[in-house]
Amino acid sequence: MSKKSLIKTIFIFFLFSVSIFAQKTEIEKIIKESKGTIGVAIKDLSNGKTLVFNKNHKFPMQSVYKFPLAMAVLHEVDKGKFALDQKILVTKKDLLPNTWSPMREKYPEGNVELTLAEILSFTVSQSDNNGCDILFRLLGGTANVDKYIKSLGIKDMSIVATEEEMHAAWDVQYTNWSKPKAMLKLLEIFNKGNKLSKSSNEFLWKIMTETSTGPNRIKGFLPSDVSVAHKTGTSGTNAQGITSAINDVGIVNLSNGKKFAIVVFVSNTPDDTKTAESIIAKISKIMWDNLK
User: What is the pLDDT of residue 15?
Assistant: First the structure.
């Protein structure tokens, strides 16, 4: 290597290091100012640059776990056990009241046949809790989903309870947890597209890009036309005014061809939803600004 090339390489490395340090400092400041517990994992998918905060904390996923659930369902589709166009009877008994369910709002009396693709779309894009539990039953329970995720080499994630079970008692939600880097790894696997078939991966990408929940989270401070494949998770607020989970995880596509995967868990916070969502949006914008 010539002296000129060596100097150029050192200069690029210096700028790279300064950029990482600047991002790290900005995110640390946001976390420090928060009243809750914040978990973050971000990766530039073009060069592998990664930042992780609160890496050992087990964060309640809430509806974020519908993303690994969808991967598990599509894995079975690829094996030929199910088909996206197969019809599934949804009865009124399946449509529990007092839970978030656009499916129930559309079909209040149930007794309707929906395709597996439609139920996946309700579950992922609209975060339907009844759709989620229908899919868990289809797969034979949460343990089978957890087993599939573990088979991908992801150990620091636990899927134990259904939506119905989480609604039964406040503490149950904490049994469905993930460490930030584990969820980041799952996003990387999804992005590589080598664990699901091309058609299944494209379908999952589509329904995650069509996510309608949490527009003020990862996408909050980004241009309105940006493409983000993501899954949100939101808990209730207890009598003490604590919200256990306001989450968003996903992959952001920039117009220059770059991508980054991002995981932000906001846990056990007394902040209102707007404040908690702005934490996610600010962290996402920091990464965006450094890659655009």
Answer: 42
Output the domain CATH number for residue 244: 3.40.710.10
Tokens 């008994």 belong to which residue?
Answer: 93
Q: Are 90 and 113 in contact (CB under 8 A)?
A: yes
- Catalytic residue numbers? 63, 163
Q: Which domain holds residue 269?
A: 34-81+155-291
pLDDT given for residue 10 in this prediction: 42
Q: Are strands 243-253 and 112-115 parallel, antiparallel or unpaired?
A: unpaired
Residue 226 domain flag = yes
Is 149 inside a domain boundary? no
pLDDT at 5: 53
The position carrying tokens 């005014």 is 241
**Which residues in the chain land under pLDDT 70?**
1-21
pLDDT at 116: 98
| Number of structural domains in the chain | 1
